[in-house]
Write a structure and sequence with these properties.
The protein contains 9 helices and 4 strands, in the order H-H-E-E-H-H-E-E-H-H-H-H-H. By secondary structure, the chain is mainly alpha-helical. The protein has a domain at 40-101 and 112-244: Substrate Binding Domain Of Dnak, Chain:A, Domain 2 (Up-down Bundle), CATH 1.20.1270. Helix 2 runs antiparallel to helix 5 (117-176) and helix 5 (117-176) runs antiparallel to helix 6. The longest helix has 60 residues, at 117-176. The protein is rod-shaped and about 105 Å long. Keywords: Coiled coil. Residues 289-307 have a biased composition (Pro residues). Residues 262-315 are annotated as: Disordered. InterPro entries: AH/BAR_dom_sf, BAR_dom.
Length: 315
Amino acid sequence: MMNMKKLDRLKQWAGERMGGEAKTNTTEDFKALEVEMTMRHDGMESLHKSMTTYMKSLSKRQEGDDREKALSVGNLGSTMVNHGQDFQTDSEFGNCLISMIIDVLGYKRRLMRDIALGRANEIIARKQEGYVTAATSSWLESLERSLAQMKEYQAARKKLEQRRLAYDASLAKVQKAKREDFRVEEELRSQKAKYEESSDDVLRRMQEIQESEVESAADLTGMLDAQLAYYDNCREVLLQVKREWPTSGNIFHDPNDDYAAYQSHSPTNTHASTTSTASEVDVGFVKKAPPPPPPSRVKKAAPPPVPGKKFVGLG
């Protein structure tokens, strides 16, 4: 059976919807904060959903040829290694898969197995696991804490609305009473105190959510650092593979040189733009040597005359 307080709140709510009962309103600043909280909550939910999907996609394990579950990139690496072992030891393609290098004496041996493309992908799989752990502990868990904080705010906001209805219901009773009633007035004072308490609590929670931006930014920085470290490590592993790539005519080229060459000929580089010539244009990221300077056309001074001899037409 519904108690009287709930019934009073229900009557007050229905009266407000019908336009017959007055409603206690909050300040404009309070309302603006509530709008901001709604925006933050919707954004946090979207971020959490997309981040969870991202982490699941990176940490999803699949069954490989050996029936063991591993990350997709790890399965790819294992498959490369297994297939590379199917070839003869002098197979260039097989060597690329598992990096079997032939030394200068012609003896076949396995060197730098950790830098083979297959092995490299297995290493990348382990680095990916570390990245997932770091990104989860930094950013995903931060989003979960923010959502938990937002959930507590929403519970407090719901409680405030219930107390607001109870307060307005008591206020309506006092206004409609034909004579003074001590019990009704005491109930009004009690409901008003509860409403103000809840209002202060909700305001405090909204301000705490705003202040938590500093911590959220720090956690997002942790996510960025983890992402940078992951991609830098993967890049270094693949560059090491390229340095030892066992194909004929392989010449390792550091991509960093490309960037340096690009910078030297960038339009923003004033010195390069004013001194470079057509012969200095990069072709295939290999800079051509500048042409030799043209022969000097400066007129040479005549040699000093030798004593006792006369020179004609010089000078």
